[in-house]
Each structure stands twice: as structure tokens, then as C-alpha cells.
Write a structure and sequence with these properties.
Helices cover 45% and strands 7% of the residues. The chain has helices spanning 8-22, 30-42, 48-53, 65-84, 93-103, 123-131, 153-159, and strands spanning 4-5, 87-88, 112-115, 139-142. The protein is globular.
């Protein structure tokens, strides 16, 4: 049977149980665990050593090596539990799309792709966008808010394998305006 996407309530309940059973390291909340889970899948990390050595510039909290190892083991436990139930972990969706595009490329060639709030996306998302843009002539219009401090923009572009030097503009006036 194929996997089906688990709803957020069931995901939260499962992760809460997992945290109580397996994460005996203080300071790891459901929020932190989900952020780390998204980071692992968004950066295509498959091995614990790679996870421990990859700098997560989006991390606004400190995790020591013992906590990172504990998170890694918990991610494997969660992955196995979801696999047994034929549940699809939402964080896996970009990776599955990438895998499918590697196996069977699609003939989609957009002239332009608009990406808003780029600072919220993992590097794998940009790899997916690059797959659907016309080769040589296609363009990405990427917006981000560097003032939100969620991620180091230059590290994001480096991780996404995008060379934006000389191809970017800082807007003087915000493009998202609240009229209230």
C-alpha cells in the first residue's frame, strides 16, 4: 500500500509521544524537534555524521552534540513508526518530489517562477524550482525579508547552489504593505 499524508493533529500526537518516550535530553520541545526534522529532510541529510557536522544557520536555539544525536535517533524512530503505518511524513514531501524528478523528469518549462518568503524554504525547494524553469532563459524572482533573522541569506543561497552575486536588489520600500 502507498503512504498517505498524516494530518497535523496525529503528527503532533505521535511526536509528543515520541518526545516523552525517547528524548530524555532536556530542552527539546516539539517545535525544536519539528524544525530539526524539516532541516534534515530539507538538506537531504541521510547520515548522523552529516547531520552533526552540517551547520544549521536557521537554528535560533542552541543544541549540544548529545541533543543532536538524540534528535537523530528519534527521527529514525519516527521514520520507522510512520513507515509501519504507511504514513507520509510531511517533511519528506520535497525529497519525494526530488526523487521522482530524478527518476522521471517532467517536461515543464516555466519562463518565470515567483518565490515569496524564500528565507522560509529549505535548499531542496530551490533545486525543485530549478528543475521547472526553462534552461538558460528562465528566471526566478525571489523575495525574502532579511530583517526577520530566520536564516542567514548568503548561507541559504550557498546551500541552494544559487549564485546571486550581481543579480539582486534591495528594495527601499517594502513590497508587502499593510494598509491599516
Amino acid at each position: 500500500p502507498s503512504e498517505h499524508l498524516v494530518d497535523h493533529t496525529e503528527l503532533a500526537k505521535t511526536i509528543d509521544t515520541l518526545l516523552k518516550q525517547h528524548l530524555d535530553v532536556n530542552g527539546i520541545s516539539q517545535f525544536i524537534f519539528l524544525r530539526e526534522l524539516d532541516f534534515i529532510y530539507g538538506h537531504k541529510i541521510f547520515y548522523e555524521n552529516d547531520y552533526l557536522s552540517t551547520q544549521n544557520v536557521a537554528r535560533t536555539y542552541h543544541l549540544n552534540p548529545a541533543q543532536l544525536s538524540q534528535i537523530w535517533r528519534s527521527v529514525l524512530t519516527l521514520k520507522n513508526e510512520f513507515s509501519q503505518k504507511n504514513w507520509l511524513l510531511p517533511a519528506r514531501i520535497p525529497q519525494l518530489l526530488w526523487d521522482r524528478l530524478q527518476e522521471k523528469p517532467v517536461n515543464i518549462n516555466y519562463d518565470h517562477v515567483l518565490i515569496d518568503d524564500a528565507h522560509l524554504l529549505p535548499p531542496i525547494a530551490f533545486e525543485l524550482f530549478k528543475k521547472v524553469i526553462k534552461p538558460k532563459s528562465g528566471q526566478m524572482f525571489i523575495t525574502q525579508n532579511p530583517n526577520q533573522g530566520i536564516i542567514n541569506p548568503s548561507q541559504l543561497w550557498k546551500d541552494a547552489k544559487l549564485d546571486l552575486r550581481g543579480h539582486n536588489t534591495r528594495l527601499v520600500n517594502p513590497y508587502q504593505i499593510n494598509l491599516q
